[in-house]
Amino acid sequence: MAKRLKVFIGLASLLLVATAALLIWKNSDQRQDHINLIRVDTPHPNQMIQSPLFISGQARGMWYFEATFPVEILDDRGNVLARGAAQAQGEWMTDQFVPFRAELQFSNPSSKTGTLVLEKSNPSGLVENAASIKIPVHFK
User: Fold this and answer.
1) Domain of residue 51, CATH code
2) What global pTM score does this model have?
3) Of 46, 109, 121, 128, which is least surrounded by CB within 10 A?
């Protein structure tokens, strides 16, 4: 009986480790996909921000539609504090990285933390064409 228990515990442990490894691998692949599509220079994750917020970076041409893509700031409850559009700073009809800039004005929220969301332009509205990155921020 003790031998069966040891085998069961061993198999359960192996299954748990394999599942954890699979989840870590899958999440790292998703992060890599976004690195290959968009790079944000400012703000950095967990940076202290205030209004106006200046956002800059580079995104591949496929991230844009008509040289823009949506950006928004959310408070810690998911309420939208500001919405706007990032503007390409060069020729966006390419598969290369194109610099972008955006500026968002917002009122100081009651929360101390929030999220900056940069969304891939998706004029089709199809789920398979949707993508976004979320950057945690702290409010001054």
Assistant:
1) 2.60.40
2) 0.74
3) 128
80-88: strand order across its sheet: 38-42, 53-60, 97-104, 80-88, 68-75, 113-119, 132-139, 47-49
Q: What is the pLDDT along the chain (140 residues), one digit of tens a residue?
A: 677 777 667 666 666 666 655 555 554 444 445 668 999 999 999 999 999 999 999 999 999 999 999 999 999 999 999 999 999 999 999 999 999 999 999 998 999 999 999 999 999 999 998 999 999 999 98
Structural domain boundaries, residue 12: 1-36
E strand spans, the chain: 38-42, 47-49, 53-60, 68-75, 80-88, 97-104, 113-119, 132-139
Whether residues 31 and 49 share a domain: the answer is no
For residues 18 and 67, state if they share a domain. no
Dist. CA 138–CA 140, nearest whole Å: 7
- Chain-centre distance for alpha carbon 66: 21
Q: Are residues 102 and 117 in the same domain?
A: yes
Q: Cβ of 75: how many Cβ atoms within 10 Å?
A: 17
* Spatial separation of the C-alpha atoms in residues 109 and 80, rounded to whole Å: 10
